[in-house]
Specification:
By secondary structure, the chain is of the alpha+beta class. It has nine helices and 15 strands. It folds into two domains: 248 residues, Orthogonal Bundle (Helix Hairpins); 104 residues, Urease metallochaperone UreE, N-terminal domain (HSP40/DNAj peptide-binding domain). Helices cover 25% and strands 24% of the residues. Strand 4 and strand 5 form a beta hairpin.
Length: 379
């Protein structure tokens, strides 16, 4: 849309957020409204489709710090002049110039803000496409090894039927007779100033569509769906934001495409966890294996099991390291597999096991592992 249209629309109200809302609050509101009004969730619902367009338009401006700043400035200036003379000259303290001078014309000032210069209409400028954001959920294995995913994207682009003109095929828009194609109109503001604002006949477009396109109903924009095959790099982490350059909204008037930002969510694994570039696993061992030592086998995520030596006297919770059996790193190598042992205490004992444990108790005698506590704090 033309930047001149911004001043007449309350994008904060469209998203249901306050003017001082943070970027996270704006993003959260957009995601909620986009899901509720997405065309795929509301087939044949024209009202939901219009709301989806409005939400997408508002987010495209407020999600960009640069566009949001420009929008806020335009809204502030537009509201200031719409009510009459600027606040600095209120209360009758300002007197018009004498000596035959004409009233001050602020059209150049506002024209610079709204992308026009005076009443002359500039040639359409190249505009970068909107940056888009989407989410994808992948398995733990895909996060470790990398994967290629098909993503179905829906965004607003030039209507494929009218090619962005807004007019029904076979017809063309006409130059607005009121603003002569400038998209702006000039009128008096309280008798002191001449003010410039978007034309109320063409709504700032400079063109009048007499025969609207049946698909976009004259807006020139329509939801467009496409499927992208996106490569998820190996070693991606849960919550990571991946930038796909040029895969966002299409540029206008020869401008470059926007970027696509993909937020990746990784499903939990039944056995393995992540710690940076390392994988983690907790392995149970028996008391005798911890006390006397043992050779055990440990499963790996995508290969044969590894053999691990448990030294005699291994305490519960000790962590061992199997080199090169972890996740793929950004440098192309692999992290390690961190194996934490958990000594299991049986809840049911056979007669033979009970006899062996009782023999161990007799051999231990009166000594207990708690004897050292009372050396620090006497009983």
């Amino acid at each position: 849309m033309a930047a001149s249209d911004w001043a007449t629309k309350d994008f904060y109200k469209v998203l249901g957020v306050k003017k001082d809302a943070s970027a996270d609050e704006i993003k959260k509101a957009y995601r909620k409204l986009a899901r509720e009004n997405h065309p795929d969730s509301n087939p044949g619902n024209a009202a939901a489709e219009e709301r989806f367009k409005g939400v997408s338009e508002a987010y495209a401006v407020l999600s960009s710090a640069e566009k949001r700043k420009e929008y806020d400035e335009q809204r502030s200036m537009f509201g200031q002049f719409r009510g009459g003379a600027p606040g600095g000259f209120g209360g009758g303290g300002f007197r018009p110039p004498t000596g035959g001078q004409q009233d001050f014309d602020v059209s150049d000032l506002l024209g610079g803000l709204f992308g026009n210069r005076g009443r002359q209409r500039q040639r359409p400028q190249a505009r970068k496409g909107d940056d888009l954001e989407t989410e994808a959920t992948i398995t733990f294995e895909q996060a470790v090894d990398g994967a290629t995913l098909p993503l179905r994207m829906t965004s607003e682009e030039a209507c494929p039927t009218c090619h962005g003109t807004g007019a029904k095929p076979g017809t063309t828009p006409k130059v607005c007779s009121k603003c002569q194609g400038s998209g702006m109109q000039t009128g008096a503001a309280g008798g002191l100033f001449a003010m410039t604002e978007p034309c109320d006949q063409c709504r700032g477009r400079g063109l009048i569509v007499e025969h609207p396109c049946d698909i976009c109903r004259g807006s020139g924009r329509a939801p467009s769906s496409r499927t992208l095959n996106v490569r998820i790099p190996a070693g991606v982490k849960d919550g990571q934001r991946i930038r796909l350059k040029g895969k966002g909204g299409k540029g206008e008037n020869g401008g470059p495409n926007g970027d696509l930002f993909l937020v990746v969510h990784v499903e939990a694994h039944q056995l393995f966890g992540r710690k940076g570039d390392h994988l983690t696993i907790t392995v149970p061992i028996a008391f005798d294996e911890a006390a006397l030592g043992a050779q055990i086998q440990v499963p790996t995520l995508d290969g044969p099991p590894v053999r691990l030596k448990i030294p005699a006297g291994t305490p519960n919770g000790r962590t061992f390291r199997a080199g090169g059996k972890g996740a793929v790193t950004s440098a192309g190598g692999r992290g390690d597999l961190l194996v934490t042992v958990e000594v299991q205490v049986p809840s049911d004992l056979s007669d033979e096991e009970r006899a062996a444990v009782e023999a161990l108790r007799e051999a231990r005698g009166a000594m207990t592992p708690r004897d050292g506590l009372f050396e620090v704090v006497p009983s």
